[in-house]
Structure formats: structure tokens, C-alpha cells
Amino acid sequence: MKIEMKGINKSFGPNQVLKDAGFVLEDGEVHALMGENGAGKSTLMKILTGVYKKDSGTITIDGREVHFKSPQEAEKAGIVFIYQELNVLFDLTVEENLFMGKEITKHFGICDKKAMRRKAQEVMERMGVQIPVDAVMSDLSVGQQQMVEICKALMVDAKVLIMDEPTAALTERETETLFKVMKSLREKGVSIVYISHRMEEIFELCDRITILRDGTYIGTEEISKIDMDGVVRMMIGREIGERFPKRDAKIGDVVLKVEGLTKEKLFHDVSFEVRAGEVLGVAGLMGAGRTEIMRALFGCIARDRGSIYIDGEKVKIKNPEQAIKAGIGFITEDRKTEGLLLEKSIADNIEIVNLKAVSRKGVLSKRKEKDLVHKEIEEFRIKCFGPWHECDNLSGGNQQKVVLAKWIATNPKILILDEPTRGVDIGAKKEIYHVINQMASLGVAVIMVSSELPEVLGMSDRIMVVREGEVRGILDGKEADQEKIMTLATGGTL
Q1: Which of 307, 252, 259, 294 minimizes the C-alpha distance to 275?
Q2: Which of 11, 36, 42, 99 could form a disulfide with 16 if both were Cys (CB 3.0 to 4.6 A apart)?
Q3: 88 vs 69, residue with greater confidence
Q4: Cα(39)–Cα(42) distance, integer angstroms
Q5: What is the CA radius of gyration of the chain?
Q6: How far apart are CA 205 and CA 193, in angstroms?
Q7: Residue by residue, what is the 3-state secondary structure of 370-436?
Q8: Bridge-based pairing state of the strands 56-61 and 30-34
């Protein structure tokens, strides 16, 4: 199936998000679609699949002009979009999510439970996913939920798959499995549009790459004829310099000390410490317990035992409110459901954890609120129409910047970042790395959980490796490498 999009224009109110954009997908290729957050990648694909109506331009499939009015119409034509933001029903099981609207029926419309379970298990096995099909979605991690979404797309006999940041929440092992499936699909003639900010994946997997910048088509190149620097120049119109900025923070005294932190069935006897000005990276496979340990530190999960010390004093943290008062900021991995109030404005989200800073004698000060929010928007370069721009209408990278801004405005002693660059472009990643370094230079103790090993190695002073809820080792950042981390993460010893 060959798809050609020409002269696509789209505006939301006065804001033009696509300006004469274009894209050509050849039959049986994996085609990367790249650009900074807000460049229009997802919008262009949503126009293709009937989510949005274009203002002007043409879309042709195998030379025939088409106008899909809904994603269902696009799916019937063989085009399936796997969205970056999960489209699951959390109260239902994995199997029920896989077959939603696509149930296998017997006579009189009765669901054929056996056939559905057999097909679900077959697709899950093909993807190398070890998740019970009767598991409830809300009990799964974000990465596991993403794998279910990918499996759901494979239930359909798709001719074109559009994947928007499919590996953002996956471990290396899950990513390798996904790549094997994608290569197998390509061999069968399936075309894949691959939207990702992970350069390594693009160069490993894709045949060609198309770049958008500020909603405009910049160019298309064969992967074999371009390098990473060339892609970055096309994306942002300038050189970006070193991928991981150098940091010269002075490591101070111990700020956070954790002893014997335990929550049965999740993590056991976790002990570590973080110093002022230090970045402690946390690595491990999906389901290792990294996120659960951080949530316990912030009071989201009640621990069974263990002690937490801040600046040498034992503290009681049973809920997030106590954690915030103790000086802990927590940027969660799931910005959509836990990090932001999506229907609220940037100002509302920033002020919600900074009420003291924007109040005078218990009364909200509009001047203080305006000053704080404008300062954060400028410092984080949040692309928006102003403080009252609703977060639901921001790109993924700008949403993440709002989450960072609101917590950093609290001036925390300890900052926990769980997958801080998930789903953001290389330019925004660099800005987030600068923020992390800046916080460390101010003496903040930083804990950074990440599934991207190059990121962990490039940003950390020390690296704590977690496996099955236990700390398997803590490596010096200068001596660590991917092999050592994976050896500990998979149960080996150094």
C-alpha cells in the first residue's frame, strides 16, 4: 500500500499547526517520521486516519484519493494507528481490551470465549509478552499496557501500522521483541510509519526518514545516506552540541538515606543514599520494582517497614503531602494520569503544588501567580499561547515541561524523576538534561529512573541497579557500562 499526502494544511482556531505538509509511504517499508514536539507529526497521522479533518490538501492510497471520516474507516482500509497515549479501558481485562469491538461470535451473536482466548494467547506469544490474558489492565505497568496496545493492533490484518513512540515505556528486551515483529511484518509487505525520538531505533530499524519542523515538510532522506547530526539539523535547524551536557556539580553531604525499605511482593530490604548535587540513576528491567520504590518514598505506596532519613533526621512519610513538606518532588512516569490535570491550564497545574508561593496570608495573589507561571514558561521554553493554555492541548514534550516546572518551582531538596524524557524529542531532552544538571548544581539530590541505558550512563554519578525488588548493586558512573548494568539487571554478578 502506497500512501501519499500533499499540501496538507490544518489550523486549530488561529493556530496553524500544519503548513503545506507532506508525506509519502512506500509499500513494505519502515518509514521514520521525526520532528520536535509540536512539529505536527501526530496531527498529520491523525488527519490520515480520520481523527482530524484537513483544511486543504490531498491524500491518495495507491493512486486513489481518499477521505477517511473516522479511525474505523481507516482501519477497514487496513490502516491502524497505535497512539502514544494509551487507549485502554483500565477496568477490563487484557483479553477484553484486545477484542473490544472485534469480538469473535458464534451463533446468535454469542461471544466465542475459547476462540478469543486462543487468538489472544497466540498474538501475545508472537510478541513475546508474558502477561495473563485475564489480568486487569489497571494492575499492569505502563510498559505492559503499551505492549497490550501493540498486540491489539496486530489482531487486525493491517496493511499499514502507524506507531507513535511505541517503545517509550518498554525495556530493551521488550523493544528487541517488538523490532523482530516489525521486521517480520515488513517482510510480509506491511508498511510501518514509525514516530520516535530515539535516534538509535531510527537508524537500526527504518528505511527512510521524513522530517517536519513547525508543521512544515523539511525533507525525506534514505537512512543509509544521513547521520544523526544531519537528522538533528533538519529537525531543529541548528547544531545541538553534545548529547549529554557536561556537569561539574560538587557532591556534598548525604541528603537522603533509605534503610531496609520493604513492601511485600513489590520490593525488599532496599537501602541506598543520595548526596547533595548528585544524580543517582536507577536502572532495571520492566517490573523490577524501580517505580514502586520511588512511589513508596513519596508516600503513594504504604511500606511495611524501613526508614527514611532526610538531612540526618528520620522522617515520617505516609502520604504525598508529608513528602512534599519534607522537601521531596516527584515527577511520575505517567504524566497523563498522575502528573497533570489535563483539563486545567498551565497556571492551574503549576500553582497546585506551589500555593504558598503564590499566596499572601492564605489569599491567592494574582500578581505572584502571574510572575511565577511566566517565569516557568520562559525558563522551560514551553510552547503555548500563555499561562491559561489547557495542558490537554499541549504536545507531549511541552506537557512534560509543565510537570517539571511545577515541581522545580517548589525548590525541593530531593527530586525524583521517573522516566523524565519519555516521549520527548532530542531538543527537549537536552533542555531536560540541563534542568537536571542545574538542580544538581544547586545542591538538590536527584534520583533519575530511566529505561534508556545511554541516558542513565550519560547523566548519572552513580547507578543503582534493581532486580525483582532488590538492589543488586550500585555502580560508579565513570566505571559503569551497559554490559555491567544488564548483567546485574538479569541476575548475574560482577
Answers
A1: 252
A2: 11
A3: 69
A4: 9
A5: 23
A6: 11
A7: HHHHHHHHHHHCCCCCCCCCEHHHCCHHHHHHHHHHHHHCCCCCEEEEECCCCCCCHHHHHHHHHHH
A8: unpaired
Q: How far apart are CA 192 and CA 159, in angstroms?
A: 8
The size of the chain, in residues, is: 494
CB–CB of 410/324 below 8 Å?
Answer: yes
Query: Does the pLDDT value for residue 164 go beyond 80?
Result: yes
DSSP result, 76-138: HTTEEEE-SS----TTSBHHHHHTTT---B-GGG-B-HHHHHHHHHHHHHHTT----TTSBGG
How far is Cα 360 from Cα 351, in angstroms, rounded to an integer?
13
For 316-353, the pLDDT digits (tens) are: 999 999 999 999 999 887 766 777 888 888 988 888 87
* Residue 239 clears pLDDT 70, i.e. is over it: no
Asked if 353 and 298 touch (Cβ cutoff 8 Å), the reply is: no
Task: Please give the angle made by the CA atoms of 162, 163 and 169, to the nearest 5 degrees.
Answer: 170
- Long-range CB pairs of 467-474, under 8 A, 24+ apart, other chains included: 467/284, 467/285, 467/288, 467/491, 468/288, 468/289, 469/266, 469/267, 469/268, 469/270, 469/288, 469/289, 469/292, 469/293, 470/267, 470/268, 470/269, 470/270, 470/289, 471/270, 471/271, 471/272, 474/272
Residue 494 C-alpha from the chain's centroid: 31
